[in-house]
Amino acid sequence: MKNAKNFVVGILFIVFGALYAASVLGFLSFDIFFPGWWTLIIILPCLIGLFTEKDKVGNGIFLVLGLILLLNAQGLINFQILIKLIVPISLISYGIYMLGKAGKR
Fold first, then answer.
1. Given Cys at both, which of 4, 17, 22, 104 links 27, Cβ 3.0 to 4.6 Å?
2. What is the secondary structure of 11-75 as a DSSP string?
3. For residues 44 and 8, what is the distance between their CA atoms, to the nearest angstrom?
């Protein structure tokens, strides 16, 4: 478990370092304070938890929530439409969960 956590954190540091180096060299524009940067406080621990913890449901739910908030902050999705889709998305998610549960037996 600890090795998986160290692996994920190591990959994150490598990616962040490479993006920052590319920004310094002028290959791309990368700013640590982009719109929705605060959602990383939700996303990163949940992403690490998916690889290191047994309970993946809670981490998965909060990871999706963090990604939705990030996409909304970036202007890629409309939060008003997403609010209307909560019930259908919940039903579909629960159906997938039940299929997975039935498949284990």
1. 22
2. HHHHHHHHHHHHHHTTSS---SS-TTGGGHHHHHHHHHHHHH-S-HHHHHHHHHHHHHHHHHHHT
3. 10
Residue 41 and residue 51 in contact, taking contact as beta carbons nearer than 8 Å = no
> Nearest CA to 49 among 8, 101, 10, 15?
8
C-alpha to C-alpha distance for 25 and 81, rounded to whole angstroms:
40
Name the DSSP letter for residue 105. -
47-67 burial, b at 16+ Cβ within 10 Å, e below that, comes to: bbbbebeeeeeebeebbeebb
Average pLDDT across each block of 10 residues of the chain; the chain has 105 residues. List them in order.
73 85 84 79 87 82 88 84 82 86 72
What's the CA gap between 105 and 103, in Å, rounded?
Answer: 5
